[in-house]
Amino acid sequence: MSAPRFVCVHGHFYQPPRENPWLEVIDPQPSAAPYPDWNARITAECYRPNAAARIVDGGGRITRIVDNYERMSFDVGPTLMIWLEREAPDVHEALVRADRASVARFGGHGSAMAQAYNHIILPLASPRDRATQVRWGVRDFEHRFGRAPEGMWLPECAVDTPTLEALAAEGIAFTVLAPYQAKRVRPIGGQWRDGEVDTGRVYRCPLPSGRTIDLFFYDGPTARAVAFEGLLRDGGLLVDRLIAGGRVGAPSEPFLGHIATDGETYGHHHRYGDMALAYALSLVERGDPRAKGARLTNYAEFRTLAPATWEVEIAENTSWSCAHGVERWRSDCGCHIGGGPGWNQAWRAPLRRALDRLAARVAEVMEQGAAEIGFDPWQARDAYIDVVLARSDAAIDAFLARFGGASHARRTLELMELGRNAMLMFTSCGWFFDDLAGLEPVQILQYAARACELAERIAGAGVTAAFVEDLGRARSNVDAEGDGRKIWEKRVLPARVDLAHVAAHHAIETLVADEDPAPSRGGSHVVCFEVETRDRALRRAGKARLLAGRVHVRSRVTREEAEHGYALLHLGEHHLSGGVKPFESGAAWESIERALLAAFASGDLFAVGRTIDATFAGHTFTLGTLFPGEQRAALARLLAEPIAVAETRLGGVYDEHAPLMRYLAAHGLPEPEVLRAAAEVTLRRRLLAALAAEPPNAQLVRACIGEASQVEVELDTPEIAYAAGLALARVMDRLTAEPSDVELLGAVARLAAVAARMKSEVDLWHAQNATFHLVERHLAAWRASSASDPRAAKLAAELVRLADAVRIAVP
Q1: Which residue has the higher pLDDT, 519 or 105?
Q2: CA dihedral 312, 317, 319, 323 (to 10 degrees)
């Protein structure tokens, strides 16, 4: 009899930490438009779809919705899971739920693997950082999945013996590598032999410490075909390749056909890749003849079903994405993703040297600072993950009870944040791409800037200057970007935030809200800060407004705190000026506030401006002080009146001349540019308003699109499609709660029909899920009652219409 066959598909789901290190939120990333940032975009294209992947019939209609995560092996980077928990909790819960389901499916072995914390290239890390990365990865996994991890994914599969020792020391039983990362193999107790590794079996790797760790080597050619050669166009062919690939051993052994790729392959890198994966896994799951009797498994289960009978030695300092080992992350090895003509990666080596030297200085600061307080900084940093996971006063207090004590709270927390940012600045993506001025290198330089700031706060000046001097030896391929020093000044330092900046941001948001002062005290959260109002006064005179106040600002991360007074004078539109600076004395602030209010009451706005300039000399601010993520919304509110006036006037121009534009378009005559501009703004605004209405006005949406066609204005854009997807998801939530509302069901069906006809892709994921479940739960009953109940007949007809619009197959 032939040995049993098994299939496993592993997805490495990961995004680098993208948060502004001072705010702990992601600043807007315009390159991800229409989504606010790349995490949000990839979540919509990949992470969420794989939790409810579609299996379709020959006509492209959805017949089944399945959870890919339950059927595959996967790891999700802790930095991504932190973001998902906060910004996409449904996806976070789906991943945790899938692991629980896989425990039952695969003999008590969950499919989720841990990952080293923030994707540092572990062979290039210091021994302390390597240990902390593994320990933080294990602790994050336990926190989320409620169990100890059996396996851990190595960032970029970068491996050496110390890295495997670090995994084994923390109880990790296995990891996954590329086939060419095996140096030689042998039957346990036999003779070593060079040659091709058998990817169909698991290997035992003996370590110098006496420990061992199991290693899986994925089917490289099939994984490459999935990632780069279009194999996902045919899920059946993928199954054929998985069943056939990698076998060089005896046919009597159990065989594992498996691949590992970036999880983003399934939906982000390859559109509909999630669906191809779902189809392939379903073929195996239901015993299709193409699967040849194989069954799904995961790595943890397979190593118990077919324990290692062979040993392996690894090829040291290798990875899955660099043909030169780990050189991609420290030298101009030639690996790149494209770049411009004549580009090089000579910037990588000086960037690595600069960060290595900074890390050495950080270690000195941490050891000296912790010694002064009386604790081991490295033991404390390992434990600090519990604070990172909770970010609560309770977690901080519990940590301080072990390290530093309440009397040294701020200094202890600054030391820990120094250690955390000194790891984040080594995130692998900083070297992976093609230029020093790219999004990812700038991100790790922001973490380096935060580390420099904290190190100087603890140990004194000089850290930043030395780092920037080293960084200046790296140069961008883009002449306008210059060297590392220029990039530091232009792209890194503007992201910095201090307590005064937080107070100024809070003041502008308060002014924009245009609310009368609250009681004397009131607290609020501004990203990772707490702002408590000590005093506030708002005065109006015509369009002019004066806001003056004093606030207590406290970092929820380091517990740094200070009192600040602020004053803003707004004269309408963008004419806003203000100042903010520390005011520890309430009496001193009250004197300034009285002078400002008296000057404003007198009507002498110039005197108000002079008082602000004199009081806050060197500490003034403008609208540009708003945090990047809040600027668009705040400006929209602040400029609501002039925007409304402009839109009304443009709308009047368009309405007056729309007949002319229709005539010109109908006869193929050129339309005047000014009239086209008025039409584009007006119709776009009306369409967005119709989509934002409660409920969305499908009739007006159709009317706007039809009118735009008549005057040859394009409204089928990614921005409109994004808004349509949000509107449809919003109204589907209402329908799910009230499925028997005939009018609502009809309105949703009409809106879905409009969205489905757009050329720009509308996100129908949520609507399809909800409609699929409505069909499963209600359609048969409504049809059965339709002969005697006209309302049920109408519900059934509208549900079929909705299903047709979102391409759900109806029985």
Answers
A1: 105
A2: -110
What distances in angstroms separate CA 403 from CA 398, 423, 558, 559, one per listed residue? 9, 20, 14, 15
Burial class (CB in 10 A: 0-12, 13-18, 19+), 292: middle
The bridge status of strand 620-621 relative to strand 576-582 is antiparallel
Q: Say whether 795 sits in a helix, a strand or coil.
A: helix
For residue 512, what pLDDT is reported?
Answer: 86
Region class of 666: left (phi > 0), else alpha (psi between -120 and 50), else beta: alpha
Q: Under 8 Å CB-to-CB from 766, ≥6 apart: which residues?
A: 725, 728, 729, 732
Query: Is pTM, for the whole model, over 0.85?
Result: yes
Nearest to 445 by CA among 12, 40, 16: 16
In our burial notation (b when 16+ CB lie closer than 10 A, e otherwise), range 326-342 reads: bbbbbbebebeeeeeee
User: CA angle at residue 322 from 320 to 326, to 5 degrees?
Assistant: 95
* Residue 1's pLDDT band (cuts 50, 70, 90): very low
Distance from the Cα of residue 332 to its chain's centroid: 29
pLDDT computed for residue 665 by the predictor: 93
Position 519 scores a pLDDT of: 44
DSSP string, 1-24: -PPPEEEEEEEEE-----S-TTTS
Query: What is the side-by-side strand order in the sheet with 310-314?
Result: 174-177, 212-217, 202-206, 310-314, 182-187
- Pairing type for strands 73-76 and 529-541 reads unpaired
pLDDT in tens, 75-102: 999 999 999 999 999 999 999 999 999 9
Question: What DSSP string describes 82-140?
Answer: HHHHHH-HHHHHHHHHHHHHHHHHTTT--SEEEE-TT-B-GGGS-HHHHHHHHHHHHHH
Q: Which of 157, 155, 168, 151 is nearest to 208 (CA)?
A: 168
Q: Report how far residue 381's alpha carbon sits from residue 391's, in angstroms, rounded to the nearest whole number.
A: 15
